Amino acid sequence: MMTTSELRQKFLEYFQQHGHQIVRSSSLVPHDDPTLLFTNAGMNQFKDVFLGFDKRPYSRATTAQKCVRAGGKHNDLENVGYTARHHTFFEMMGNFSFGDYFKRDAIHFAWGFLTGKEWLNLPKEKLLATVYAEDDEAYNIWLNEIGMPADRIVRIGDNKGAKYASDNFWQMGDTGPCGPCSEIFYDHGEEIWGGIPGSPEEDGDRWIEIWNCVFMQYNRDEQGNMNPLPKPSVDTGMGLERMAAVMQGVHSNYEIDLFQGLLKAVARETGTEFSMDVPSLKVIADHIRSCSFLIADGVMPSNEGRGYVLRRIIRRAVRHGYKLGQKNAFFYKLVPDLVKEMGDAYPELKEKQTQIMETLRGEETRFGQTLETGLELFGKVLDGMKFLKLESLLPAEGSAEPLRLQTADGLKFTAASRNSGGVKHVVIAPQAEGRLNETVVFDLQDVVADAKPEMDAEALAVKAALEAYLQANIANSKLIIPGEHVFKLYDTYGFPYDLTADMARELGIDLDEEGFEREMEAQRARARAAQSFKADTQLAYEGQDTEFKGYTERQTEAKIIALYQGS
Ligand code: ATP
Ligand code: MG
Ligand code: MG
Ligand code: MG
Q1: How would CATH label the architecture of 4-254?
Q2: pLDDT of the residue at 4
Q3: DSSP classification of residue 508
Q4: I want to staple 170 with a disulfide (CB 3.0 to 4.6 A). Which of 114, 181, 231, 371 is the partner?
Q5: 428 alpha carbon to ligand 2 midpoint, in Å?
Q6: Which pLDDT score is estimated for 555?
Q7: Strand, coil or helix: what is 552?
Q8: In whole angstroms, how far apart are CA 500 and each of 62, 329, 510?
Q9: Is pLDDT above 60 for 549?
């Protein structure tokens, strides 16, 4: 079996043998490039070479580049844990030509590495290529020179802004070098859901994109004009983890050697049984890489810019740890395991190990202080929303059309709402043909809240049936958490927007993003008014020292309910 480290080495060796200079990975913090949040591709460090502003003593280079895609143009944060192939941090293997070779050699080099006997020796019939819709030159190279069957060459246009969908026009950002590309996909087998690129099922994980060969031809300027580069060049990117999965005969990136080690460490530190079916384990294993590498490259958690992205990733990891039952700082304890897996290839991890651990520990300890109360508020908001949803679904008592339901074991009943003394109840009555023989009255709140000890088996069964009915209706018309609450979680408990979105997504509900933005804007306006004498205002979340004193819990609940009744 080829390990991830061996694969990294083999790639560099292959291109070195073909006249490429091995160049070290650049920092994750782009040097001198305000258009870029983090290094997101191997070509970033060569941007000025492509543009003709910078000259190197070589015209061919090869790299293993650290990349982070957790913000900006390429953002995969939301995909992590949900697809088999996306990470926030990953290594992109690349070969580059600066005005030297172009399409023909780029395609032949990639093919030679993938299928060459002494290289990866992959079966040709498992591979597929895409080309830019109008790129006949690349199409013909695949067809006539490589011998790819025509039904394995797919022409794909320019899917601007597509999140998953193939897009064969690559660009590093809104401005900068760009050009048509040709991508190589690997078939992981028909037992996995998914279709070839361009098909309706392309979002699946069957056909996985492993390598992108970009034919750098233009520089997009701020007005959107495409200016030709001084010389046509080549930039390629092969995902190391994805290719390692192929070479190790596994489907998901998380099954490769490197991730197996990390996943075991996460299981150990969270006190969870090791399993490939627990998304939180994968999310944490992913996040320890991006967080550690970012800190090693000098990023510190903060309230804005790069530091805020780092903070968001750390908090997300901590929340997933909490979900697994780990209430103490644990994330930082994974650093030595990461150093063991990757410290040889990236010595900066070893050198900065202590600093990385201290930074992570400080950050997770601080967040731990507000996480629990924030989660409680989140739970209350949810219960409040469910309460109102259920109420809206129930016909009033005495209605000619009562709601007819049945429990899991077939007990039939009707449900209706009753309002007595300002308290909402649900009236459960037996249906004529049913076995239930008594009318029961629940406090509506008890249906959405946790079960109470005094509830008997029948009451629990009825409660479960009502919950299932509610759940089915939530799935049909999504619940949306109002921006006001998302903002409260952010402002008072330090829950970044995407963290709340991550929790909501697990429950199949949405957030009111616009409402949240309105609250943010209002807060900025308040801060501007209060600090107009200061040149630079610091507006975002200020850490654990802001304690929420606005409402008592009951008032919060009442507010939530009032809010829903109003809408
Ligand atoms: P996808 O369509 O799967 O999101 P992409 O088209 O966005 O990938 P490129 O920008 O073409 O990716 O990057 C080149 C290569 O880097 C990809 O072919 C893939 O092998 C790898 N890669 C891209 N994004 C990720 C990621 N988030 N995690 C791991 N590998 C990645
Ligand atoms: Mg992508
Ligand atoms: Mg793609
Ligand atoms: Mg791509």
Answers
A1: 2-Layer Sandwich (3.30)
A2: 97
A3: T
A4: 181
A5: 51
A6: 44
A7: coil
A8: 40, 20, 10
A9: no
Task: Give residue 11's pLDDT.
Answer: 98
Q: State the pairing for strand pair 480-481/510-511.
A: parallel
Which SS3 state, helix, strand or coil, does residue 77 take?
helix
Q: Is the CB of 289 under 6 A from ligand 1?
A: no
pLDDT at residue number 432: 55
Q: What is the DSSP letter of 146?
A: I
Q: 10 Å Cβ neighbour count for 15?
A: 23
Strand order in the sheet with 423-430: 403-406, 412-420, 423-430, 440-443
pTM of the model: 0.86
Q: What percent of the chain has pLDDT over 70?
A: 91
Pocket test for ligand 1, best of 79, 183, 209, 247 (most atoms within 8 A of CB): 209
Question: For residue 135, what are the contacts with CB-CB under 8 A and spacing of at least 6?
Answer: 155, 168, 180, 182, 215
Percent helix / strand / coil, the chain, rounded to 5:
45, 20, 35
Ligand 1 binding pocket includes 87 (Cβ within 6 Å):
yes
Sign for the CA dihedral angle at 370, 376, 380, 382 comes to positive
Average confidence (pLDDT) over 84-90: 96
CA 52 to centroid of ligand 3, rounded, Å: 27
By the CB criterion, residues less than 5 angstroms from ion ligand 4 are 212
Q: Residue 213: what pLDDT?
A: 97
Q: To the nearest whole number, what is the mean pLDDT of the chain?
A: 89
| Average pLDDT for 509-515 | 93
Q: Ligand nearest 87 Cα, by number? A: 1
Beta bridge partners of 170: 179
Tell me, what's the pLDDT at 165? Answer: 52
Q: How many CA atoms lie within 13 Å of 19's alpha carbon, on the beta-carbon side?
A: 12
Q: What string of DSSP letters covers 371-412?
A: HHHHHHHHHHHHHHHHHHHHHHHSPBTT-SS-EEEE-TT--E
At 96, the amino acid letter reads: F
Alpha carbons 40 and 66: distance in angstroms, whole number: 8
Label residue 259 by pLDDT band (50, 70, 90): very high
The CB of 210 under 6 Å from ligand 1? The reply is yes
> Which H or E run includes 307?
helix 305-323
SS3 string, 237-301, reads: EEEHHHHHHHHCCCCCHHHCHHHHHHHHHHHHHHCCCCCCCCHHHHHHHHHHHHHHHHHHCCCCC
What CA–CA distances, in Å, run from 173 to 43, 73, 74, 216? 12, 6, 8, 14
pLDDT level of residue 566 (50, 70, 90 thresholds)? very low
* Complex ipTM value: 0.99
pLDDT single digits (tens) 341-368: 999 999 999 999 999 999 999 999 999 9
The domains of the chain are located at 4-254, 259-370, 394-471, 479-566
**Both tokens assigned to 316:** 């997300």
Which residue's CA is minimally distant from atom 22 of ligand 1? 239
Give me the pLDDT at residue 420, please.
81
